[in-house]
Every structure is written in structure tokens, then in C-alpha cells.
Amino acid sequence: HMKVAALCGGVGGSKFVEGLAAVLPPDQLTIIGNTGDDFIHLGLTICPDLDTVMYRLAGRVDRERGWGRSGESWRAMAQIAELGGPDWFQLGDMDLAVHLLRSHWLAAGASLTEVTARLCAGFGVAPRLLPMSDRPAPTQIQTPDGLLDFQEWFVRHRWEPPVEAIRLPEGVPAAHGVIKALEQADLIAIVPSNPYISIDPILNVSPVRELVRRRRGRTLAVSPLVGDDAVKGPLANMMRGRGLPVAAESILDFYRPFIAAFVQDQRDRKKIAAGDIELLVADTWMDSLEAEARLAEKVLAFAEDRLLA
User: How many Cβ atoms are within 10 Å of 131's Cβ, its own excluded?
Assistant: First the structure.
């Protein structure tokens, strides 16, 4: 089997890594999660993308919504609202327990990498899930009304304010395990996540961008677009805002310096002329664990054939 390092954002990405986890032995899969969405809320450290991946791999995710916990209750949030506290970012009771523990362990001196490993062990998640950095690396969104913290823009304002620019922090070091995982991987997979707000923040922690570029011959990206549209979330809006066609070609252009292979959805109107990049056209719609595993199998076989042969 091949060692895979996956760069991963939230919901869409978590589905693809669930597929990878279904077909790879756990010690062959390392997931590097975006922490640009992390923030402090109600005094707690919240890591939305890491948690979405962790809950999904633990079989505990709310599959209807794609994030949060299944069988969740909301009594603490109802109480916070009643007392006039900030209830715009909904945290369920079981989810809160995770944020309490994370914040408790961080305050006791553990790194985010260590805390994430402890939480994953507690949930029985076997593949390694690594935060991109042990230091805060907050993504900010420049809007016509000023600079917003990511969750303020994404959740509180429901990603309505137009995006003028995405501000990523300078000089944040990657977590030690991240560099090692990327150096040792047979295949680096950029999963179907928003390139601008899920993947670029990971590339932006030092020295990930250079490392992935150097290992370009072993790197593949899966398009997050299905039938020339975003599955959910702000991606299509952001592409239009940048004056880009909402098409896989635009995604490929963004990743071109980093990848040797690209996976496009079969529903897209036109097949990419990929030039020197190996192209796989496949069904990337993931509406079940079977579909996720099937896509993961297909992508790994393609990588083995075209990149690693």
C-alpha cells in the first residue's frame, strides 16, 4: 500500500478522507487539517475543520448537516441565548464537551497536535489527524465593510459580504509532524475542499507550499466542483467574485504549480485540456460511504498507475 498525506478542509474534504480511511490501512493515512477557521469563542478553542474530520472518521458526525455531532442536544446553547450570550455560533452539548477538554489540555501545556491525537484516540479514530500548525493561523476576510474574522464572515454573516481578499497570516510554522508526513508520503492528495479558504491556508504555513511544490510529481488534487457548481458553501460565489468561470479548469489553474494529476467530475460540461497534467474524469459525488470509498479506490489506483509507476 502507499502512504498518503491528505490536505483537508471541512465537510467535502472529510467525506473524501472517510473514503480513503475505508480503503487504506490506518497507518498509511495522515490527514493534515486546516486550522485557519479556528477561533476562541466563549473562552474555548474551537477547531471546526479538525472536528468535522474527527467526528466523521469516528462515525459520530451529523450526516444530514455534514458537521457537528449526530444525536446532539442544545441545552447549553439555549441557556446561553436566554442569558443574552453569543448564540450565533451553535455549539451542541456533546460538541461543547470536546471544546472544553481541548481548551483544558491546551491550558495545561499540551500542543494542538497532542490534543488532537488524544481526542482522536478517545473517539477511536485510527488514521493520524494533524493540525496544520500548533500556533494560531487565523484566516481573515477583507470585505467592503472591513476585515472580518473567518467565522464572523462565514457563520455570523452567512458568507454574504463580498470577498475582496483573503488575508492569511505571515510566517506561521507548520506543525513538526506535518513536514514529516509530507516528506514521507508516496502520494500527497489535495482533497475536494475550497482551494482559497480550506487548502491555501495549509499551503501557507511554512514550509508547506515549497514542500508540496518540490514533490509535485507525487501530488494530486480532486476538484471540489460537481457539474460546474459548488456542492455547498461559498466557493462558486468566490470564484465569480474573482472573475473566474465556475469550472474545474479554474481550480486546476490554481493548483497547477503543485500537482501532476487532477480529478474532475464527470458531470462537468467540458472536459479539461490538462496539458502536462494527468486527468481522471470520475463520479466525485459522495452521498454515501460506498460512493466515498469507490472514489477513493479509483483515485488511488489512478495515482498508482500514473504518478507512482
Answer: 27
Q: How far apart are CA 101 and CA 94, in angstroms?
A: 11
Q: Is there a contact between 41 and 87 (Cβ–Cβ < 8 Å)?
A: no
Q: Is the pLDDT of residue 309 over 90?
A: no
- In sequence order, what are the residues at sequence separation of 6 or more whose Cβ sits closer than 8 angstroms to the Cβ of residue 200? 166, 168
Above 80 in pLDDT, residue 123? yes
Say what the pLDDT of residue 66 is.
Answer: 86
Q: How many residues does the chain have?
A: 309
For residue range 207-217, list pLDDT tens digits in order.
999 999 999 99
Residue among 39, 38, 29 nearest 7 (CA): 29
In angstroms, the CA 91 to CA 44 distance is 11
Query: Look-up: residue for cell 473566474?
Result: 244
* Cα Rg of the chain, angstroms: 19
